[in-house]
Amino acid sequence: MSGKATEISMSSFFSRFMKFGSQNMAIDLGTANTLVYVQDRGIVLNEPSVVAIETINGNKSVKAVGDDAKMMMGKTPDSIEAIRPLRDGVIADIEIAEEMIKHFIRKVHGKRSLFRYPEIVICVPSGSTSVERRAIRDAASNAGASQVYLILEPMAAAIGADMPVTEPVGSMVVDIGGGTTEVAVLSLRGLAYTTSVRVGGDKMDEAIVSYVRRHHNLLIGEATAERIKKDYGIAVMPADGIGETIHLKGRDLVNGVPKEITITQANIAEALSEPISAIIEGVRIALENTAPELAADIVDQGIVLTGGGALIKGLDDYLREETGLPVSIAEDPLSCVALGTGRAMEDPIYRGVLMTA
């Protein structure tokens, strides 16, 4: 009886999606960026998860969201503060997160978003607590969603990377996001083993800032560190021990004046060694806890890297060397989670991976 009831419930769920297909959304609510996937339209929005708040006479109002707010980071007057409402993959400021989600819904749907009928699927880190998941669900609900469903981030990443998650075959995905790295072994629409390492792109940026401060007495901003990571980030020492030359501008901590210095790619590799080692350790732990039959499949299937961190130069080779397993990077690592969340929303074959609680 309960099985039949579940079947009817799931059938009703997907009929509602078809009824309002053009309105329903899948959201990759990431620490660094938020991507929105609209049913039958694909990814329609990809903007930084940043909100600029202006305070006038004690009253707070939203000044900018997304790209416009990101440009303000580190450059705002006292009355304006650029905030990232998500930390480590979960909501740190629910009110600001609600405003951000509302803004993105309006940007995607315009005035139609005033109606409370969009159904939304949002991905959450596998290591998130029930309280953290409730915060994400409440933020989306308060932003105008009539129904909110959740999907675990590694599952969404695997679906987006076209991995065989519905088959009785073990496969491993490593999703390196802004706040967390999700490591999971998947089989038959489920997670056979998963671990969430709270190390990602943000920790890499912090490591670069800390390295430059410690070794050169120069303070650089978060945006500068992120640019260095994207342009020059490397997982292993360059072959010549030096690599490319990088010019950095910041504030001299000794004299208190602006200053420019020169560092090398080898310095960046040294700075990133600690967060990358934490990611490698997370992969090792997952492999150690994987059932023998699934481990045998991973030897054949290999490990797939997704997320922005997968683009760090040489990371796939380093992981291949450390584990002895085949390692590949997904075709579109930055969009994998959003694509997977959207496909889980659209395709009945993935109906078992969505959660309501």
Give structural attributes.
11 helices; 357 residues; 4 domains; Nucleotidyltransferase, domain 5; alpha+beta; disordered N terminus
Précis, in short:
This protein has about 350 residues and is α+β, with helices and mostly antiparallel strands. The protein contains eleven helices and 18 strands. The two termini are about 20 Å apart.
Classify the fold: give the CATH topology of the largest domain.
Answer: Nucleotidyltransferase, domain 5
Question: How many H/I helices?
Answer: 11
Within CATH, the superfamily of the largest domain carries the name ATPase, nucleotide binding domain
Structural class: alpha+beta
Question: Which stretches are low in confidence, meaning pLDDT under 50 for 5 or more residues running?
Answer: 1-8, 17-21
Note down, in words, how this protein is organized.
- It is a single chain.
- This protein has helices at residues 2-19, 67-72, 94-109, 130-142, 153-160, 201-216, 222-232, 265-288, 292-301, 315-323, 336-346, and strands at 25-29, 33-38, 42-48, 51-56, 59-65, 80-83, 86-87, 90-91, 119-124, 147-152, 171-176, 181-187, 190-197, 218-219, 245-252, 258-264, 303-306, 327-329.
- The model is unreliable at 1-8 and 17-21 (pLDDT under 50).
- It has 11 helices and 18 strands.
- It has 4 domains: 2-47 and 90-156 and 337-353, Nucleotidyltransferase, domain 5 (2-Layer Sandwich), CATH 3.30.420; 50-83, no CATH class; 170-199 and 278-331, ATPase, nucleotide binding domain (Nucleotidyltransferase, domain 5); 201-272, ATPase, substrate binding domain, subdomain 4 (Actin, Chain A, domain 4, Alpha-Beta Complex).
- β15 (245-252) and β16 (258-264) form a beta hairpin.
- A 5-stranded mixed beta sheet has the order 3-2-1-9-10, sandwiched between helices.
- α3 (94-109) crosses α4 (130-142), α5 (153-160) crosses α11 (336-346) and α6 (201-216) packs across α8.
- It is α+β, with helices and mostly antiparallel strands and 357 residues long.
